[in-house]
Design a protein that fits this description.
Transmembrane segments: 12-33, 45-63, 75-97, 109-133, 139-160, 167-186
Oligomer: single chain
Number of domains: 1
Number of helices: 7
Helix content: over 70%
Strand content: under 5%
Keywords: Membrane, Transmembrane, Transmembrane helix
């Protein structure tokens, strides 16, 4: 059985992810009210929140063959992180910057281009996961989307940022590199039956 598509979702699985994403969205919208820079605060916190959800999304995806529950949670967290990334992109493009063209001017072609590429690939991946049948799922596209997300987040948070967000970047990168190494060393067996 393939683990390239969520199936047999349970209320508990959906609740865990929706509650996590919902609380993070509330935090992103309310916490900046206590600070002086409302719009920039929301933009920054939405990237933090995306990172918080990407850690379990990518980590669980690495071991999705352990069972359908693990695979389901990986796809749900991936989708929740995407929702927060879309919120971040909206806030950055249309609130902080004055549209797509100004985003390229302000961020430069390399950074803005990478962010728009990630937004497009991630959106396509989420749509494919939820709308296409399992036989049409592509492991390679999922792998590329996740590697792109990992590389852009790790490089941006670790190299281009400083302070607390850089620490989160090191936690993000370190956790996922460690998970990938464990996955490479200890093959996670696919379960024959679900309990």
């Amino acid at each position: 059985m393939t683990r390239d598509k969520p199936t047999a979702l349970t209320l508990a699985q959906i609740t865990i992810v929706n509650l996590s994403a919902g609380l993070l969205i509330i935090w992103c919208m309310i916490a900046p009210e206590l600070d002086g820079d409302l719009e920039m605060g929301r933009t920054r916190l939405t990237i933090w929140a995306t990172t918080f959800l990407l850690i379990p999304a990518l980590g669980l995806w690495l071991i999705r063959t352990a069972g359908q529950t693990v695979a389901n949670l990986a796809y749900l967290f991936w989708t929740g992180a995407w929702v927060l990334f879309v919120l971040h992109a909206y806030w950055a493009i249309f609130i902080i910057f004055d549209g797509v063209a100004d985003t390229f001017v302000q961020q430069g072609t390399l950074i803005a281009g990478g962010n728009f590429l990630l937004l497009g690939v991630w959106t396509l991946d989420v749509l494919m996961i939820w709308l296409l049948p399992a036989r049409m799922q592509s492991f390679w596209f999922q792998l590329i989307a996740r590697l792109l997300a990992f590389l852009i987040f790790a490089l941006t948070l670790v190299i281009l940022r400083g302070g607390a967000i850089q620490i989160l970047g090191f936690v993000f990168a370190g956790t996922l590199v460690g998970a990938a190494l464990v996955r490479a060393i200890v093959q996670v067996p696919a379960k024959v039956t679900e309990t």
